[in-house]
Amino acid sequence: MPSRTLFLSLVRALGGFALARRLTRKNLRILCYHGLALDDEASFQPKLFMRADTFRRRLQLLAGRGHPVLALDEALRRLDNGSLPDHAVVITFDDGWLGIGTLAVPALEQRGFPATIYVTTRDAVEAQPVFNVAVRYLLWKARARLLDFGRAGLDATGTFELDDPADRERALASLSARADATDGPGRTAILRAVARALDIDWDALAARRLICLMTPDELAAIASRGIDLQLHTHDHRFGGCDRAFADRTLLENRQALAPLTGKPVVHFCYPSGEYSAAQLPWLEALGIESATTCKPGLVGPRTPRLELGRFRDGEHIAVVEFEAEISGFLELMRRARAALRPA
Predict the structure, then answer these.
(1) What domain range includes position 76?
(2) In angstroms, rounded to a whole number, what is the distance separating the alpha carbons of residues 321 and 331?
(3) Which end of the chain has fewer CB atoms surrounding its CB within 10 Å, N or C?
(4) pTM higher than 0.85, yes or no?
(5) 228 and 203: one domain?
């Protein structure tokens, strides 16, 4: 058992989690998920994809511990007016992966739990795989451990040893540059070529829509069942961009989502958690009422609404670590370390 897991198990046994729950009961817990695995994605990237049975056990734990699960808009409103119930939780998902609709939403409905999905719309609208994740998946899954651009028919020379991390990153950089210079079908053509060169059956993967987001029709269907759809940019880029790009990607995002849901599209999630303080007024000008980050932390009445903390859960997170986070124990540890840090 890893030392961190052992330590947290001891704290739980000694009542530390129960004490933390009492001390942090008025704070809001916002959970962050990405995709639920349709196949072996949780082995490929356990921080990004979770197995469906793991997710169902998380929901069972929330129910068993008596955590009220609220919709994001309701939770923030009740936080503001002082009526937030003790130990309240909000469940969020980033990107809009297909497994959310097919696996997560039925599990949520079984519990009567609401959720918010921050949707990146370009790949959803184009109904194409998410290139940067899909190409890494192909390199991970490859039977051949050598990628030959010539064999792939990429009209370029270069051979890359996939077992060499530096060589693999060079291949990824080259492929990403090619993808950035083309459109959705062009990006998929690159993926097909790479799969062929690596002896992977691309058609089989495409038929199952692995590494894909939900389509607008699929998003509209779950929105009609009460799932909240909110903003995550059109291009999955925000941090480091200029004002014109930020306005464009958010307006395109909103224009794509607004017809799919009857609710206001006024909440935002920073792609990859990247943003700067200078960008916050841009969000206010666009009518953004809240924005979630990838920084851990519980949310209180004084938490800036455009810098809400979340706990990023995943297949790699042990159950005791999940319990430590939702109990508030890890938040108390973070606060203690901050207080002891030299000024």
Answers:
(1) 3-126+213-340
(2) 12
(3) C
(4) yes
(5) no
